[in-house]
């Protein structure tokens, strides 16, 4: 039986009130007032689609034996690398084995469900099992454009397998059209879109019903069989029209989270699906529909196993963990839309030594250290000789992962001289509960909110951006530990 075995989600901590954006740019496009309600989720300066996908993947893997994972499928239209397997970076950051299958899915914002279908069909064919499907996007709208207000950042992840299934896969129906609504060229930074009327009347109003009707005919199900119907459409009037046309009741209609997060692109239907799974009961049927260059429609039935899942943040917990980003220009600088002077120290040429990264890949990307087999002392980075002065055993080490461990702040400082687009740069020493001490940058926090002894967890983040070569380097940063909802 192929289906969903686990789920996870991630919404960045910072939220930008759309009223602030409109207050700054509304003079250029007054009609944007129609899109100025609520807030949009905004990735931090050190986040991108890879780091958010990792966060969602970590959430989805709670309670899952990582040694059983057979693949990682990553879907996005804003992948940091065009020629480097982005899913390979995610695989290492999730602490998974090297001997697994990994693939990137892109080219259209229904790539998330396409990746999900590939995993479901692979599991059903017994070619692979326990595939992590993660989707994430950080799409940009040009300042004063509707997209700037409509878009938001988020990620979702699902573990697809054949055992302990929480939502059994019942069938799918797909269409593919070269329907151009949103598009970006080879070097484009910002999303471009054709007329809203075109997108609403020919796109959503015709392509979504075709996919839904195709699925219902293929599976023999009726719309009344579904407890929740998930489909992305931020146009309020068009959504009401679609609900009426398809017979979707208000109770069935899954919130599109436009007011809380925004339209997240590739992961959006999966983000909504994760939210539906959080609230689902055994026996519920869920209809999942994506949109973009056609549609994918998938049917699932929730099983009793959903009651056995380990606690996780998912979308509800991520939404609860929020902080206001009360400065619109800070968002512009974080996204490299507005140039900002980070000082002379920012002119240092940061470039990746690929041979060194290869040798240290598990330490850097997976935060693997060592544990002494003789006395049990753990340490990061990896050591050949035990750091315990009462032991000193040589070459008796086994790997030990720090990425899922809790630490405490031993010391910290705010550095206003360090190059940063979010000054001051905050960093300090973290001591892990089971041993091991290392200096980390701190993120998703303010200097005044920190204190020695405060518990922290680590989060996979962008360590630096190499402007000359247009690439990013990744490592782990410390984040104050917050209670999950």
TrEMBL record:
Domain of life, per lineage: Bacteria
Record GO terms (molecular function): acyltransferase activity
InterPro entries noted in UniProt: ChsH2_Znr (IPR022002), NA-bd_OB-fold (IPR012340), Thiolase-like (IPR016039)
GO terms under biological process: secondary metabolite biosynthetic process
Domain ChsH2 rubredoxin-like zinc ribbon: residue ranges: 367-394
SUPFAM superfamilies according to UniProt: Nucleic acid-binding proteins (SSF50249), Thiolase-like (SSF53901)
Matches recorded under Pfam families: zf-ChsH2
Cited PANTHER family: 3-OXOACYL-[ACYL-CARRIER-PROTEIN] SYNTHASE 3, BETA-KETOACYL-[ACYL-CARRIER-PROTEIN] SYNTHASE III
Protein name: ChsH2 rubredoxin-like zinc ribbon domain-containing protein
Record organism: Desulfatibacillum aliphaticivorans
């Amino acid at each position: 039986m192929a289906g969903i075995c686990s789920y996870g989600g991630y919404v960045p901590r910072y939220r930008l009130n759309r009223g602030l954006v409109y207050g700054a740019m509304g003079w250029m496009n007054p009609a944007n007032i129609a899109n100025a309600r609520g807030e949009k989720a905004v990735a931090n300066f050190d986040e991108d689609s890879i780091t958010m996908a990792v966060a969602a993947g970590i959430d989805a893997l709670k309670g899952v034996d990582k040694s059983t994972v057979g693949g990682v499928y990553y879907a996005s239209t804003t992948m940091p690398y065009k020629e480097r397997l982005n899913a390979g970076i995610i695989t290492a950051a999730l602490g998974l084995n090297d001997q697994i299958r990994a693939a990137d899915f892109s080219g259209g914002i229904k790539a998330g469900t396409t990746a999900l279908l590939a995993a479901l069909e692979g599991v059903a064919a017994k070619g692979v099992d326990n595939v992590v499907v993660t989707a994430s996007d950080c799409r940009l709208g040009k300042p004063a454009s509707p997209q700037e207000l409509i878009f938001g950042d988020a990620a979702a992840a699902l573990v697809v397998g054949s055992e302990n299934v929480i939502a059994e896969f019942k069938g799918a129906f797909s269409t593919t059209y070269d329907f151009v609504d949103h598009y970006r060229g080879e070097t484009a930074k910002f999303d471009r879109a054709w007329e809203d009327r075109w997108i609403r009347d020919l796109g959503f109003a015709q392509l979504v019903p075709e996919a839904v009707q195709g699925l219902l005919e293929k599976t023999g199900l009726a719309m009344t069989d579904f407890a929740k119907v998930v489909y992305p459409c931020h146009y309020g009037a068009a959504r009401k029209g679609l609900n009426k046309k398809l017979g979707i009741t208000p109770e069935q209609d899954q919130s599109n989270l436009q007011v809380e997060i925004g339209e997240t692109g590739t992961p959006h239907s999966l983000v909504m699906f994760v939210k539906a799974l959080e609230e689902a009961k055994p026996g519920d049927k869920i209809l999942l529909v994506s949109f973009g260059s056609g549609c994918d429609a998938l049917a699932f039935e929730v099983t009793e196993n959903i009651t056995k899942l380990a606690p996780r943040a998912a979308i509800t917990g991520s939404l609860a963990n929020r902080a206001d980003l009360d400065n619109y220009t800070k968002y512009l600088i974080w996204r490299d839309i507005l140039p900002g002077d980070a000082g002379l120290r920012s002119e240092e040429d940061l470039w990746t030594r690929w041979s060194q990264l290869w040798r240290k890949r598990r330490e850097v990307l997976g935060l693997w250290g060592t544990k002494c087999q003789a006395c049990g002392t753990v340490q990061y980075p990896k050591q050949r000789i035990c750091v315990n002065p009462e032991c000193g055993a040589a070459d008796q080490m086994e790997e030990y992962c720090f990425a899922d461990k809790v630490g405490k702040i031993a010391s910290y400082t705010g550095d206003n001289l360090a190059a940063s687009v979010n000054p001051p740069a905050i960093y300090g020493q973290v001591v892990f509960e089971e041993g091991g001490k290392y200096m980390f940058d701190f993120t998703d926090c303010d200097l005044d909110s920190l204190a020695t002894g405060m518990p922290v967890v680590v989060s996979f983040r962008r360590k630096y951006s190499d402007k000359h070569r247009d690439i990013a380097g990744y490592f782990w940063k410390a984040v104050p530990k917050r209670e999950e909802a």
